[in-house]
Q: What sequence folds into this?
């Protein structure tokens, strides 16, 4: 249906640009594609500025009429749906979310949504295909859920120590994303997680060793690229050593310049050497790199001085979301996009809404245009960023063929070969950290097992896996912050069990919550301690950060899966029963609780089974 237009889109766009305005030498430079410069010359100043924004939209189709979605879009943009947003503003990209806004229903729906976006983009006066992006990192950050293939996530893959697995699964993810019309993934994470109390990165990082992180990042850059999707490494200059979540505050990285060069820089430098398409900025204050107090997203010394000039990076620089507190604390929303462009950013992700829910994108777009009109920004500066954005779209084939083939979605997304590859890779990641009592591996057979702890789906899935191996499993989900009453009830249930499997999710986060700083509290650690005190055999499985063991060292048996995908839980069950020998090794150091300078389990630790 779209074939003829696919093949001639760049030629038609170039012809239209030529008819609108004569070609001049203002954008001429060695190596520049004259077809892209003609497109830029055909744009108005407002269209150029809009091309630099990536917007969220509500709804599950480009032309949604759902009343709730229409109302939300009207608050943000003054129009009903994505197609109308594109018609009015002509943004360069759209980002999909799994929730708030919920854009994702199923793969076929997403493919139709993507095609609707592209039809709207190509219907404009200067037809330019849209960059459609998503956060599909794998593990705990996956906007598209099953039937799409679920990668085990960064830290899990690093535990497996196989860059080939990281590359293969990035390629699988990219092929499935491209099948649903997504052409840019905000992955992989290049942050080196050297702070076990990091509230926002953790298992999204490949680990605490810069060399290991660099190997895995470059493998995934290769994989995403091979699958036809633009990879985006994040969050420059490095979000791995912070106790502040940039969604809710302003992280301050106190590394010296030497520490930054040694710890944070290597994965980004490796990705640049690999030709990565895009780099996402972090809303991070790094005094050693810029003493002004500006976050990196707004820092010219960091984005231009270091990233562009020193490291020689020529690709697209995209900001982290502009609705995050880390970039809104110091300046008003109208100043942020102007300062980001002055700093050296190219694309401006997800403009915020104000406290009344009114979208700030029109204000931010107008602010960029006005900055050019008054001379604070030059139009040439905008042209540089627009060119990089168009070049990325050309590189990823969007001028040639921006559409998803809806007839092939079911054959690609969740293909049997993809699912098998994900399970094989996941089976190499489970890490047996502690087996002091020699409880593992278990023998199959009848036994009463209590599965307790975090996650309704997680505990249920583990219970089902144990039941398949002959156990009578009772499941009690206790949440992130179990109360003492809930703990007492679970301990009472353990009295009838032959074995207890306790599931934890960031049990290390033991601080009580405050209105400004949400924490899990000590409930999970207290639950594990109480279960161990019953004298029953207890296996603890940490399904997110591996650091939990430091807060209940009396637990005799401890595994880390780094994520709670179904594949990770199946792998854990296989390890419990000796069907699979544990082969994962810690990609981080686990410190003693309350003393980050003392090691409880070292980087590279991991037990196996003797036959």
A:
């Amino acid at each position: 249906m779209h074939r003829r237009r696919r093949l001639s889109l760049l030629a038609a766009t170039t012809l239209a640009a030529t008819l609108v305005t004569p070609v001049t030498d203002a954008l001429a430079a060695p190596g520049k594609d004259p077809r892209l410069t003609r497109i830029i010359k055909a744009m108005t100043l407002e269209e150029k500025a809009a091309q630099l924004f990536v917007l969220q939209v509500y709804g599950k189709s480009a032309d949604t009429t759902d009343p709730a979605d229409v109302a939300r879009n009207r608050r943000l943009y003054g129009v009903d749906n994505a197609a109308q947003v594109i018609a009015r503003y002509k943004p360069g990209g759209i980002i999909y979310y799994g929730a708030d806004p919920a854009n994702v229903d199923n793969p076929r729906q997403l493919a139709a949504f993507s095609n609707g976006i592209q039809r709207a983009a190509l219907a404009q006066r200067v037809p330019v295909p849209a960059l459609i992006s998503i956060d599909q990192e794998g593990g705990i950050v996956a906007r598209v859920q099953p039937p799409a293939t679920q990668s085990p996530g960064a830290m899990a893959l690093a535990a497996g120590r196989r860059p080939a697995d990281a590359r293969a699964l990035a390629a699988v993810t990219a092929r499935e994303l491209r099948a649903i019309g997504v052409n840019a993934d905000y992955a992989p994470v290049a942050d080196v997680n050297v702070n076990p109390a990091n509230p926002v990165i953790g298992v999204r990082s490949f680990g605490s060793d810069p060399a290991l992180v660099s190997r895995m990042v470059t493998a995934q850059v290769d994989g995403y690229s091979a699958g036809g999707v633009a990879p985006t490494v994040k969050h420059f200059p490095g979000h791995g050593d912070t106790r502040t979540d940039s969604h809710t505050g302003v992280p301050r990285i106190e590394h010296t310049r030497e520490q930054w060069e040694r710890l944070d820089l290597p994965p980004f430098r490796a990705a640049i050497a690999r030709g990565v398409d895009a780099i996402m900025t972090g809303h991070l204050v790094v005094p050693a790199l810029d003493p002004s107090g500006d976050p990196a997203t707004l820092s010219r010394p960091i984005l231009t001085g270091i990233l562009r000039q020193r490291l020689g990076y020529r690709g697209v620089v995209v900001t982290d979301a502009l609705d995050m507190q880390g970039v809104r604390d110091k300046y008003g929303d109208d100043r942020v996009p102007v300062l980001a462009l002055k700093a050296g950013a190219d694309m401006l992700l997800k403009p915020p809404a104000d406290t009344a829910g009114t979208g700030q994108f029109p204000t931010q777009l107008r602010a960029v245009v006005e900055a050019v009109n008054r001379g604070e920004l030059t139009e040439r500066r905008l042209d540089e960023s627009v060119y990089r954005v168009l070049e990325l779209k050309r590189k990823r084939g969007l001028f040639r063929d921006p559409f998803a083939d809806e007839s092939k979605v079911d054959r690609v997304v969740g293909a049997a070969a993809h699912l098998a590859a994900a399970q094989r890779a996941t089976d190499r990641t489970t890490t047996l950290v502690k087996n002091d009592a020699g409880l593992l591996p278990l023998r199959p057979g009848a036994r009463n097992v209590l599965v307790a702890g975090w996650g309704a789906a997680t505990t249920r899935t583990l219970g089902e896996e144990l039941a398949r191996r002959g156990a009578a499993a009772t499941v009690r989900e206790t949440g992130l912050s179990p109360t003492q009453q809930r703990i007492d009830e679970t301990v009472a249930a353990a009295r009838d069990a032959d074995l207890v499997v306790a599931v934890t999710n960031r049990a290390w986060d033991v601080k009580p919550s405050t209105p400004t700083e949400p924490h899990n509290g000590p409930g999970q650690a207290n639950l594990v301690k109480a279960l161990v005190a019953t004298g029953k055999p207890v296996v603890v499985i940490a399904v997110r950060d591996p650091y939990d063991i430091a807060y209940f060292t009396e637990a005799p048996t401890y595994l880390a899966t780094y994520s709670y995908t179904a594949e990770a839980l199946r792998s854990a069950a296989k390890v419990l029963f000796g069907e699979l020998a544990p082969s994962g090794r810690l990609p981080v150091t686990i410190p003693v609780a309350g003393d980050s300078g003392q090691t409880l389990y070292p980087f590279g630790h991991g037990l196996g089974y003797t036959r």
Confidence is low (pLDDT under 50) at residues 1-8, 15-26. The CA atoms of residues 136 and 270 lie 21 Å apart. The first strand starts at residue 53 and ends at 56.
